[in-house]
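Pasting as-is:
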Amino acid sequence: MNAPLAIRRCGLVTSVGLTAASSCAAMRAKLKNATETGVMGTGPEWIMGHQVALDQPWRGLIKLARMAAMSIREALAGIPAEHWIEIPLLLCVAERERPGRLDGLETELLSQIELELGARFAPHSAVVPHGRVAVAAALHQARQFLAAQQAAQVLIVAADSLLTAATLSAFDTQERLLNNRNSNGFMPGEAAGAILVGPASRGPELRCQGIGFDLESAHITSEEPLRGDGLARACKAALAEAGCAMHEMDYRIADLSGEHYYFKEAALAVSRTMRTLKEEFDLWHPAEAIGETGAASGIAVIALADAASRKAYAPGPASLAHFANDAGQRAALVLHFKEA
């Protein structure tokens, strides 16, 4: 069994808050802040989205870098910038298959973030281009760094936006956006977040105790019947690594953002992994407040689980987080809040 990872600090920038604390409070209250994006849909009507309001109307890579830098400063508060060179940064960005994906995500964004911060990170920092499953993949890589003693702690950062004109137009043409004509869709958004992870300690902390991955052949753009097998296998792998069962989880928290396909998949995955009936099994989805934020959704999920545990409004200490991207990649995490 792999050693658990401790979530030491979180940073989060969303459309409903510019810090983890304010964003999580808004998500708990189910506040929403969707506005017109300035892109006309096929309706015709303005496409709505969850936009992050900064002090200037930045767009593209520079806005991603600014949001990421804000979340990093929050997650690394108390650590002098001259010591950041000892911390590897794993940067989670949109998958390469994303329609309208920004150029430079893998070649320029990390250096722009460092320029924005005026600091450098460890030479073995890397980009993880897997969209909604990227944070889970980064946690797996961080665990390898720690096990190999390549770092004492690892910074996982995610920055993503679905609010570019090309991305909005593509998803609108595919009838995947939520609007007055389509209830089976998602509200696009943007966000950035950061989590500092390290070995488990004696203090109160949220721990990642299991990680699982798999592939779903019946992904959202395929014509195969959906059985939820890929997500079920990812959940089983994470639970097995953590040494527990699905019925021992107190609640679920996921990247679901409104499309019926992914809610059906989540239900099927539970039916294939639950062996003891539970009267209640909450399913939380931060996208209800912040919209579909792509790669950043993983940080939002972890930050909300951490805040809910620390502020004692979670149903219990154990949660199952799961993620799915359009290409068929599936991931699951077993999270457990350990009291001091």
